[in-house]
Specification:
This protein has about 160 residues and is mostly helical. Helix content is about 70%, strand content about 5%. It has 2 domains: about 1-60; about 65-90 and about 95-130, no CATH class. The protein is built from 5 helices and 2 strands. Helix 4 (about 95-120) crosses helix 5.
Length: about 160
């Protein structure tokens, strides 16, 4: 089909007069239509499956912690916007070591929080965590308070 289209374009470009060009244009239009049909035949099933998948995703219930994350993200963005509107640069060109370490720690902490919340919200993510040994399921039957060993002992529950 592509070769037929290329050939029709070449023949249209080489047409000597108007009548011949009209015939060649009709051949080019037919070739274009055939290429369009072939592409549509390949792409349309995938396109439909994508929308079916989106419909299935929309039927899933919202995670219990999504609202909290959305609120936190909005406040974070609002604070960033306010800093930029006040004339502060979005971020310094180069952070000092302490600031960089604090930013990294905050980002790692937030990523760990997000990962944990996603696991609690999504049974499939939790199943992956359970298979990897990061989480387990069970019923708490007894809690015993014990003190940690360290400079300042603090109560820690033994489950």
């Amino acid at each position: 089909a592509i070769e037929r289209y290329d050939r029709a374009r070449g023949e249209l470009a080489a047409a000597a007069d108007g009548l011949e060009a009209d015939d060649r244009l009709a051949a080019l239009t037919a070739a274009e239509r055939r290429v369009h049909e072939l592409v549509l035949g390949c792409a349309l099933p995938t396109w439909e499956k994508v929308w079916q998948g989106l419909d299935l995703l929309r039927e899933l219930p919202q995670g219990a912690r999504v609202t909290e994350r959305w609120t936190r993200d909005r406040w974070s963005f609002t604070a960033h916007r306010d800093r930029v509107l006040a004339g502060e640069p979005p971020q310094p060109r180069r952070d000092d070591a302490v600031t960089a370490a604090n930013k990294l720690a905050a980002r790692e902490r937030e990523q760990a929080r997000l990962d944990a919340q996603e696991a609690l919200d999504d049974p499939l993510v939790m199943a992956g965590r359970r298979l990897s040994g990061e989480a387990f399921a069970g019923e708490v039957t007894d809690v015993t308070m014990a003190y940690s060993e360290g400079k300042r002992p603090s109560p820690r529950p033994l489950v």
